[in-house]
TrEMBL record:
<dbReference type="InterPro" id="IPR052184">
    <property type="entry name" value="SDR_enzymes"/>
</dbReference>
<protein>
    <submittedName>
        <fullName>SDR family NAD(P)-dependent oxidoreductase</fullName>
    </submittedName>
</protein>
<dbReference type="Pfam" id="PF00106">
    <property type="entry name" value="adh_short"/>
</dbReference>
<dbReference type="InterPro" id="IPR036291">
    <property type="entry name" value="NAD(P)-bd_dom_sf"/>
</dbReference>
<dbReference type="InterPro" id="IPR002347">
    <property type="entry name" value="SDR_fam"/>
</dbReference>
Length: 231
């Protein structure tokens, strides 16, 4: 079985590389700026916001059983998520869309043929519950929320198209909960300790979920417990 972990050096990505390697998958993974510190897996340097970089990645990969996109940003060294619309910044908004939405579209475009199979395959994008329009009761974080809402719409749309073209492929947006990684680090003091989980815990939860999901579960936003969330 072949798995591609996109963003394999991130907090969640690293844990997934380790888990899928431990359970016997052939692991392919990408890194961006920081080279991997593990010898597990076959690694490719890839900027997933750049289509040429994804084309080269696709050309180098074999057929795939599972693709998991773990790339994303919530804050940068210059910007934090907006509390109000008055903090809205055009460049930060574009950076959110470019990193949180665009890569999944490019990956779907260039890995479609890799996922065609007679058995069930999985195309998973790490999303976030804050991207759910129906679940938005607090406001704030408008660029991140909008980029994940656009990601969710992308997943739903790809799932509908692939029902005919890749009928065995299960396409889902996945909400990991709050995981102890650099992405969540600035916000962790506000999180009750029982709600903050380690990446290894999450990797195991996602692996268990994929073992349960059928191709007919395609086109959903699903959390770490396997609960379907409203779009
Ligand atoms: N952690 C949480 O609590 C949480 C909650 C909800 C959703 N999520 C989602 O889960 C996903 C993974 O988050 P995480 O917590 O593991 O974050 P993380 O530890 O910050 O990892 C994010 C990874 O994305 C990579 N990346 C950023 N821009 C890239 C680009 N242009 N090309 C390739 N890679 C790029 C980063 O690599 P470089 O540093 O080298 O750029 C980094 O390895 C994200 O989509 C996030 O929105 C996380």
């Amino acid at each position: 079985m072949n798995v591609l972990i996109v963003g394999g050096v991130g907090g969640i990505g690293q844990a997934l590389v380790t888990l899928f390697n431990d359970v016997g998958y052939n692991v392919f993974a990408t890194y961006h700026r920081t080279p991997p510190s593990t010898s597990n897996g076959v690694w490719f340097k890839c900027d997933v916001t750049d289509e040429d970089s994804i084309v080269k990645l696709a050309e180098a990969l074999p057929s795939l059983d599972v693709v998991i996109n773990c790339v994303g940003i919530l804050h940068t060294c210059n910007a934090i998520p907006e509390k109000t619309i008055q903090s809205f910044d055009v460049d930060f908004f574009k950076h959110n869309i470019e990193t949180n939405t665009l890569p999944t579209l490019l990956l779907a475009k260039h890995l479609q043929t890799h996922l065609k199979s007679k058995h069930t395959t999985y195309f998973v994008a790490l999303s976030a519950k804050v991207g759910s329009i129906e679940d938005n009761h607090l406001g704030g974080w408008i660029s991140y929320r909008a980029s994940k809402a656009a990601l969710n719409m992308s997943i739903k749309t790809i799932a509908i198209e692939w029902r005919a073209k890749l009928p065995r492929c299960c396409v889902i947006a996945f909400h990991p909960g709050t995981i102890d990684t650099p992405l969540s680090a600035p916000f962790q003091p506000r999180i009750p300790s029982h709600q903050l989980h380690q990446p290894e815990w999450l990797a195991s939860k996602l692996h268990q979920l994929l073992n349960k999901l059928e191709h007919s579960d395609t086109g959903q936003l699903i959390d770490y417990n396997g609960t379907k969330l409203p779009w």
